[in-house]
Design brief:
The protein is an alpha+beta fold. It has eight helices and nine strands. A hairpin with an 8-residue loop joins strand 2 and strand 3.
Length: 299
Amino acid sequence: MNMTSSTAEGAMKRYFLPLVTMVALAACQSGPSPEELARDEARAESARLKSELQARDSLIGEMTLSFDEIERNIALMDEREKLIASGAKDEIGMDKRQRIVKDLQLMNGLMKDSRDRIAELTKRLDRSKIEASGLRKKLKDLDLQLATRDSALAGMKDELLARDFKIGQINDQLTAIELEVAKREAIIQQQEHEINKAYVVMGTYDELAKKGVLTKEGGVIGIGKRTELSDKLAASQFQEVDVRELRRLPLTAKKAALVSEHPKSSYQLVEEGDHLAYLEIKDPEQFWKLSKYAVVETK
């Protein structure tokens, strides 16, 4: 290689190297194009909206489940309140006293659990900044329902305190585990009660017809009509009974007949003197097999 060629090559390197460097720097400084920036912003906005929707749907789903649980708590409190009111009418023995205390403690737990849930849901809704007037209205409605039951519970406790119940017993709070166990036991008891629930009503034809229980069907011009159950029976016109406990229906009439359908072998009309004393249910399972409504027409 001669001196002239070497000199020329060196000059070219000194010229092209700065040029390449300038091009590279210019490329780095130019950055993403406006179109690329717009696409990136659109993707980010889409991801943000998707995340917000997922968070909203998740919160609404969780709140709906909590609403259902609170409503189940309220229904259970109503059922326990009825049992306590019914049991407190008569003399309260030790066994009944223990049951009442247990039911009151369950109601205390259900009330606290429900109110804690409402408070937590309200906070979460506030933090989420979701515009959900329907959810807020539901929370308010549930809170009002709880306030009504809290007032009734307080009145019930005052009555029981007047009957020598201890304040510590009726205001006792269950632990979380104890509450879950008590709820399960109460739900099982409630289900058994529903399964074994039946209805009884007695009276003359006129009395039962006035209640909408009986009607006259068939016949011609008022002759040969037969007494039948109305197809619009209302449970409110009947006395609710437990088929596991009911064995006798007291009667104070000279004659009586079952209008509802029950196997004749499953019951007996028992007389004392010149009148009927009671209807004895000899086989409860068979007696209630065809109908859970027992209608006795007396004369």
